[in-house]
Amino acid sequence: MAITVCPVTPGFAAEIGDVDLSQPIAPSDFQAIRDAFASYAVLIFPDQHLSQDRHLDFARLFGPLETTIALHRKDAKLRVRKEFADVSNLDPDNEVWGKDSRQRLFQLGNRLWHTDSSFKRLPALASLLYARAIPPLGGHTEFADERAAYDALPEDTKRRLDTLVAEHSIFNSRARLGFSNFSDEERQGLPPVPQVLVRTLPDSGRKSLYLASHAGRIIGLPEQDGRALIDQLVAHATQRQFVYTHRWRLHDLVIWDNRCTVHRGTEFDDLRWKRDMQRATVSDIANTCEQAGIKVAAA
Ligand code: OGA
Ligand code: MN
Questions:
Q1: What number is the average pLDDT over the span 14-24?
Q2: What is the reported pLDDT for 181?
Q3: Distance 262 CA to ligand 2 centre (A)
Q4: 58, 257, 261, 286: which one has the fewest Cβ atoms less than 10 Å from its Cβ?
């Protein structure tokens, strides 16, 4: 039986039915999923029962997986296989984390609009987030369509942004939250990386803003001007008409295209309820400047 694609918003999010991801997928079904992924940027697969292995196998169909750099869980006992980003609020013993745990402070960054791993030279192409436990209230994920946000800009703004390159660093997003106690070793391990501000998507040819709370300086602009421009663009790009809010159901798998979306988690009582999510992350094929043929000095 062929898969079904049911739009949840006119051109941004769609629910995919009649597919069981716990089983190997027919090539024609996977092609239909890829096609849907190229026109919608957020795909929802409800009621999937996935082992960690099956989740990773499905993710690998989209490309090579990212190896997570989890600063806060260095040397820590892992709850999930090391290929995953653990997006839960749980400690290694599956208990809700402590109020002042480093893991909690670190994950507060997910509440800011971002696109995954834009602070890495090779950013994320797709993320596949699976809900293993959800809180009864809150803890949604909001997604904004950066293609629609780009399309809505005035023509002269588009032209001005088309050639700009921003510097992304995870320490920018954490600094916004007042979280700055990183060691020199941690800082040196993740130097700022250049990323274009406007991307052209290979599958659809559409253009998209490429923004994140990780973005700091814009190359060639005074520091303050660059930061003001980014703040203004994030405000533009996350207006309600561009946003889809995903209200999680248990066992949803949601895939998003990090090349043309930003997302953020919404608040919930994280010291009371368990929210257990695991994320597989697919790497992009090259740094965004390299993909655009823009030469920038190595960071
Ligand atoms: C992520 C993320 C937000 C959330 O998994 O990359 O930002 O709602 N998650 O858990
Ligand atoms: Mn994220």
A1: 98
A2: 86
A3: 8
A4: 286
Please name each of the domains of the chain with its CATH number.
4-292 (3.60.130.10)
- Token pair, residue 113, equals 């609009």
* 68-77, 81-90, 177-186, 207-216: range with lowest mean pLDDT: 68-77
Return the residue whose CA atom lies nearest to atom 6 of ligand 1. Answer: 116
User: Using a 6 Å CB cutoff, which residues line ligand 1?
Assistant: 87, 110, 116, 127, 129, 141, 263, 265, 277, 279
Neighbours of ion ligand 2 (CB under 5 A): 116
- Closest-lying ligand to the alpha carbon of 245? 1
Closest approach atom of ligand 1 to CA 110: 7
pTM, to two decimals: 0.96
pLDDT of residue 298: 56
Q: What is the pLDDT of residue 74?
A: 58
Dist CA 135 CA 275 (whole Å):
6
The pLDDT of residue 72 is above 70 = no
